[in-house]
Amino acid sequence: MESSIYRQGLSSLGRLDINDRCGEKISDPLHDDFIKKLQNLMESISFMFQMKPISVVDADNMNFEKVNHSLFHAYLKDFTSSLLDLFSLYANTNTTNSNRLNQLLSSDICILYLTFKDQDQVWSCSTCSENVTKLMSVVCKLKKGKPVAEVLSIEYFKIHKYIVSNLKHDTWKCYPTHVQVLNELVKHSDPALLSERLGLTAPLILMMIDDYNSKFSLAGINLLNYLLANLPAADMRMYGWSNVFYDALYTRLFNSNHEILDAILPTLLSCLKTLRPKVSRKLQPDELVLVDKTLEQMVSNCFMTTDGKSLQCYFRHLPDYFAYMGVEVIGHLKQLTTLYSRYLEEAHSSWMPELLNSLDCLIKVAWIRINGLQLFQELLKAMMRLDHSPSSKVSSSAKSTYAGIYCCIQSLITLDDTHKLENALKQLKGLDGWELHLQNILV
Q1: Are 44 and 9 in contact (CB under 8 A)?
Q2: Please, which residues have CB within 8 angstroms of residue 88's CB and are 6 or more apart in sequence?
Q3: Which has the closest alpha carbon to 192: 162, 160, 149, 159?
């Protein structure tokens, strides 16, 4: 958007000063002519605070012209100061004036509030945030002291209509402030209201999740995570949204970077818990289809990836999946054992602490079918490789790796009622370099 548009808006509208615009002091500035001017001003600010980038490429890079920032912030400061003056003068005078202010400005002020309340956003600033917060407090006062969340619920449809007016399939990223309004509206709305109107919000969230740009995709995933944490699971299942959200998240498991994976994996688990809540029994075979499919894909991705951070991310979240599945994880024990055997050979890697923590969780969940002797031998070999690694003497991750190996061996020994593993370990006493290891394991 060219800066000349901002200049034109500033010069034509100027500052909203009641007496200057009316030419003289009047007893009731809320007459028809004044309301018309005020409506024109609201239409102008509604247009201007979109702050949309010039192109989708600019949107991907979150590029905004600096000159537009300064001009716009100055305009918003004058605008909010004038409205605050208007409210302070007339909001408490009589019921008629208060009602007219309420009807005319409430939804627009809510949109301004949701857009600029976060001063860390590229289009906002501390002064903007402070001004819109003051304006919102006045709107709450006009609504008979209702809290912000309740006011937003009242204005939900008007705000949502504003959002969807520009969030179209091919141009939605050119309206990042609309995305911000959606994000804030969801987080400030009552869960019961969100559940009732999920059909209005879900398509926009899915569009964000599917986007190739990490920033927008993360925003969509975080919003979905919020919905899954706050909306009734029964409602999500009843209307089929859980399946739709699961499909969107599962698709993103392919070719996603570690930042996306770190957000997807816990959200995907929440979605599975909504679809297949664990009760005091094993899941039936038909209920396990989605759960098995998800874990199998995660394990397959671990084998395929060459990105250490992505691998670290998978191992960090696997314990939560193991805990959710319980003994049913035994059905995947062959693939999981192969996975851990493969990566235990890289004992010096930075993701080893996460691998060992997830392995310890697997041992405790599926101990009844785990080949303890095989794992025991591989853990000892991993410790020997780490001993001979040049970086093990100074690396902080190496210390965490040693601690993880000790913990896994201790779990195997604890679960071995034959005491064969403990006796085998004691036979290593006296060997060079093993005394310290045995002291840490046999406690």
Answers
A1: yes
A2: none
A3: 149
